[in-house]
């Protein structure tokens, strides 16, 4: 068994592995080489430095990557290792930890905590056991929720006082600022840069008609951002309402309109991810619009350096 840094020529077999891993963990959604390459070539990502693969008998059996966030002292650890390969799991997690640690210690203030949160599917008992054996505490649980578009959807207007306007590239900075305000109290929220969002809207598959930018007079009140995950499934990456306009039914109305748009285009279902302990009780909102928990993801925290108390 060999563990090494990712190379771009690994991408096709790595994507094939990702789909095998998803199926082994009860997920049906499949990714393509084009999707992963588009994401990994975004300005903020450097997989040739931050990702590692484990290879056995010429086949990829696992990979990990430290998804560096806004601050250099904190990252998400993406973990995908096939069951029965504990040696590979340990080697990959160690390599990723060392890579993140080198970056974090070099770029972080000397008194801040340095932590890596490992994302583990709830069904992956081997990975959970490994995290618990190493003493990593469980800090959060996220749900992947799904709605099936098998019945007609009653299209409802937005609540009174709100109007949806078409998204234009010139609005991007204002839209991202509104998104940031809506998510400022969400656990693990990333404050993506304007450059990163510019990369997103410049992609060939970007469809502005699947973004909802909703105004209350001249102020953006809420946003919903979505994209086709594959030929059968849509994915809602962002749905948020700014504090001043919450509890008026806006998020629910945007979601219903979004689902209707995907159904009209022939999609079979729509997914999104949500913090199970959301401060805005988002899980209940998604249940009201017909979504159900599809799978669960656990976050185990590896603290590499404790914060200094002054």
Essential attributes:
31% strand, Aminopeptidase, 2 domains, 310 residues, single chain, 9 helices, alpha+beta, 12-stranded mixed sheet, 12 strands
Notes on the structure:
The structure is a single chain. With 310 residues, this protein is an alpha+beta fold. The protein has two domains: 2-136, 3-Layer(aba) Sandwich (Aminopeptidase); 146-296, Aminopeptidase (3-Layer(aba) Sandwich), CATH 3.40.630.30. It is 32% helix and 31% strand. The chain has helices spanning 11-24, 33-40, 47-50, 86-107, 125-133, 172-182, 194-201, 250-264, 282-288, and strands at residues 2-5, 51-56, 59-68, 74-81, 114-121, 138-148, 163-165, 211-216, 219-228, 233-241, 269-275, 292-305. A twelve-stranded mixed sheet has the order 1-2-3-4-5-12-6-11-10-9-8-7, sandwiched between helices. The mean pLDDT is 91.
Concise account of the structure shown:
The chain is of the alpha+beta class. It contains 9 helices and 12 strands.
- The ordered string of helix (H) and strand (E) elements is EHHHEEEHEHEEHHEEEHEHE
**Largest pleated sheet:** 12 strands, mixed
Kindly estimate the percentage of residues that lie in beta strands according to DSSP: 25-35%
In the sheet with the most strands, the strands line up as 1-2-3-4-5-12-6-11-10-9-8-7
What layout of secondary structure does this protein have?
Elements: E1 2-5, H1 11-24, H2 33-40, H3 47-50, E2 51-56, E3 59-68, E4 74-81, H4 86-107, E5 114-121, H5 125-133, E6 138-148, E7 163-165, H6 172-182, H7 194-201, E8 211-216, E9 219-228, E10 233-241, H8 250-264, E11 269-275, H9 282-288, E12 292-305
Parallel strand pairs: 4-5, 10-11
Antiparallel strand pairs: 1-2, 2-3, 3-4, 5-12, 6-11, 6-12, 7-8, 8-9, 9-10
